[in-house]
Amino acid sequence: MTDQSQIDALRDKPIPPQNLLIDGELCQSASGATDDVISPLNGALLTTTPAGTKEDTERAIHAARRAFDDKRWRGMPPAARKKIMLRWAGLLEANMLDLAVLGVRNNGTEIGMALKAEPGSAIATIRFYAEAIDKIYGEIAPTAGDVMGLIHKEAVGVVAAIIPWNFPLMIGAWKLGPALAAGNSVVLKPSETASLSLIRMAELALEAGLPPGVLNVVTGEGKIVGETLSHSMDVDVIVFTGSGATGRRLLQASAASNMKRCYLELGGKSANVVFADTKDLSEAAAVSAAGIFRNSGQVCVAGSRLLVERSIHNDFVAELAKAAAAIRVGDPLDLTTQAGAVNNPTQLAQNLAFVETAQAEGGTLYHGGNQILQDTGGYFMEPTIITDVAEDHTVAQKEVFGPVLAVTPFEDEGGAIRLANSTDYGLAGGVWTSDLSRAHRMVREMRTGVVHVNTYGGPDVTVPMGGVKQSGNGHDKSLHAFEKYFDLKTAWFKL
Ligand code: NAD
Known about the structure:
seven-stranded mixed sheet; five-stranded parallel sheet
């Protein structure tokens, strides 16, 4: 168990200027330029990261290509690769608290959640894919007797992994784990506002024995580093988690360059549907509040739309507001905090603007709605509930990515399904009911990649994670994630 004094001992630890990792070497950008890293906890300068350029990014792509072509990683016996990846997981575990605190100082997630969701889940993910390395087989096709069809699984090549700021280690591991386990080389591009723990994670991979050039890290702006990766003729696959707007640009860049495959994990506007027959409405209210307000709503699967059966609407919303009021928002490095900082001032301004628009369009501000704790110099916002939200309101249709819940009543199951499916998104959802048949019907009818039943959140690496509609394509996590990182090759023999 971590105690507060261990965290406090790390909260002001100086962070040296950061490096790029290219071809096994830590280096600065060729231009020498750097970006300031500002902490969302207090607005203070934490350190600098290299402002990666087009040339830096191309150098990293070439290093990855060389490492792939000379087979220094994919040509190693599977058991040897597995050993290195397990050693990496061990080093991550040995540095778990450092990684968690570093990440929180950089991105603002409350430490209680960060410990589990960040290094905790990253370690489990790297181990899961390391263990799989020597358990993946090719296939023999059921052909006629005079021929034989073999199906090989081959590493795809150079993978560019572009990561957002909300859970850099967890989401980073979702890409790095299967990409490296499958034998690929990777160029990793962390978010501008949450790179520090991910850079450290990559340094530890090198320390674990990953050969130079197999994992490269280029920090810097999306419009420079990200665009160079997406337009490259030498990147085979892009795996991306982030906003729909960036996802769209990646698809365009792919079409304009080498038609590289793009796997996109995008945003959501997930409906959490509460029926009047729910067994424990107080528990449903508490879990629903956590499902939108933890990490200040910066969770892609956050249950940001509450659809509630009209007969219990008023009582349930009152209960939910009580739960929201009880959520401790504040110092992300305090173990008792339940919702940390908003990652950056632009996101905070956007959250507040959504609240204004929601009211202007006819919604009622039922709870919260304000920036708080300004005296810290950090970026904090109250859990916010908007009621009287109609299906076509902006706050019902667009992802806020902040602690803002939109509430809409429904009359019956058909109405709930229609409302749940009424956005362009299809990432996740929730259903609360004591009627088992209804729960199964809802799971079938909701057009999302994930549905939670009588709970919200929590699945581990063993199940796939991905969206439908404009929430993306492809899946992270589980053995299905390998589908993005292997090519199938048929070998056809005449016997
Ligand atoms: P973002 O799209 O702004 O940035 C994500 C990454 O893309 C960053 O590394 C950024 O530098 C890079 N990028 C920006 N412009 C680029 C460009 N033109 N070309 C290439 N790369 C570029 O997203 P964000 O604000 O960091 O993260 C929030 C979004 O991520 C939300 O929409 C959220 O729902 C989504 N998200 C989705 C999932 C999921 O699994 N579906 C998980 C977490 C977050």
